[in-house]
Amino acid sequence: MPAVLFDFSGTLFRVESTESWLRAVLAEAAVSLPEPELTATAQALETAGALPGGADPARLPEDLAGVWAVRDESAELHRAAYTGLSRRVPLPDPGLHDALYERHMSPAAWSPYPDTAEVLRTLRERGVAVGVVSNIGWDLRPVFRAHGLDAYVDAYVLSYEHGVQKPDPRLFSVACEALGAAPREVLMVGDSRPADGGAAALGCRVHFVDHLPVAERPDALLPVLDLVGQPGRPVQPR
């Protein structure tokens, strides 16, 4: 029986915009900024790459290069990398940097792509096992639960829980074992060719989607339903 592995950020879900992220934290802290300053600060945070799941840093500071390279191998490294980047941007209160990091882990900060529920539900109806394999430094399970999608996921394989990050084939191997599927039966779906493409080394097929804002990508996941085949039909080659 075929199985499907999905990446999380940029594949099934997308994090809110940097401006929305900053506005939510300022509102929670009852801190106000003049609109031009708020907009400029949000842009500076985006350029810094401070929002996990958002844009990569435009320029990675040398003193953070080491932790950045392994940021998804532990919760501590992940927090250090991203708060280190956000602290490059002045905020009215130094405590806001930690508040920003906490905000990005909340279910409210994430939106599923329009076709995520349909694809996951259909795979479940067909008896196809589903796993989520993510380079991440925190537990994303509450995000799936809050959006009513946890029931469609059979296994979560998160880099920080295993101390290894994609593209290392070991993470994909753990996921295949968790689903009881041989790699040749597995389709990996992700938005990062360097990271998610690592599944190919294990023998999995790989299908890529674009990491776009939710409103700009309504149906990119639907082809997955054809790639894993219909009940009683052979899997079609990519």
UniProtKB/TrEMBL annotation:
<keyword id="KW-0378">Hydrolase</keyword>
<dbReference type="GO" id="GO:0016787">
    <property type="term" value="F:hydrolase activity"/>
</dbReference>
<dbReference type="InterPro" id="IPR023214">
    <property type="entry name" value="HAD_sf"/>
</dbReference>
<dbReference type="Pfam" id="PF00702">
    <property type="entry name" value="Hydrolase"/>
</dbReference>
<dbReference type="InterPro" id="IPR036412">
    <property type="entry name" value="HAD-like_sf"/>
</dbReference>
<protein>
    <submittedName>
        <fullName>Hydrolase</fullName>
    </submittedName>
</protein>
<dbReference type="InterPro" id="IPR006439">
    <property type="entry name" value="HAD-SF_hydro_IA"/>
</dbReference>
